[in-house]
Amino acid sequence: MKKIFTIIIYIFAFIGFALVAVYAAIQFGLTKTPGTIDLQHDYFKNASASNTPAWATGDEWSVLKYAVTKDAPVINKAAADAGVSPRLIVSALIVEQLRLFFSDREVFKSIFAPLKILGNQSQFSWGVMGIKQNTAIQIENNLTNTNSPWFIDSVHAHLLDYSTTTTDKDTERFTRLTDEHDRYYSYLYGALDLKELMSQWQRVGMPISNRPEILATLFNIGFQHSEPNSDPKSGGAEITLDSTTLSFGELAGQFYYSDELTDVFPR
Length: 267
Prior knowledge:
The protein is mostly helical. The protein has 2 domains: 1-31; 34-257, no CATH class. It has 10 helices and 5 strands, in the order αβααααββααααββα. The strands form 2 sheets. Strands 1-4-5 form a 3-stranded antiparallel beta sheet. A two-stranded antiparallel sheet has the order 2-3. Helix 3 (72-82) runs parallel beside helix 8 (184-203) and helix 4 packs across helix 8. The termini are far apart. Residues 18-27 have low confidence and may be disordered.
């Protein structure tokens, strides 16, 4: 019994160490990926809807397109509630998912491809939209803080209210974002992130609601790097798809302006 008890103590100690290590990695930015600024950002201003990106010809896109189409009703609901275009949400979604599909080939081949499902993250980033915990908290705070540069309006202020009986918002937030059976909150947090960024830039007379590559870039790099200016550049984390490397914003922009899924999510 003494040996069993000792083993149990060691197991819990290891779990505790792992959790602390993950938390420290997030806090000190060790989970962040290299970023870039696109040199060809003007491409998006003149992009043709007839473009067919290279990434839209592989098995990964075939699986992703099927899975995203299945989620169209809940994506549309989240978009309507937040007041953004569903295609903007999907632009960020497909980057998060393609990054996951290409970075973990074995999981893609053994799980995502056969089941034709989206990857639901639950470690450094949460849910299908890859929302980090600190970002989720800021999205919530921005909704109710009228002094925040990202405040939208009173109509949206209570979209993320918690139940009056909850005593553990952290657990409920995690459950919201990682629920594999109902992705509404995952899409809603993503949609509100985009809406809050739009509100910030609109308030100072520099609207970016028609700049999907810029919105996706800001979605990726975070609120703290959102500084309205007259000549924003797309960029963000580098996403490697086989032998091709694109920035987060560039890949999102390529999807938005392509013909892919326009029958489900029009521009």
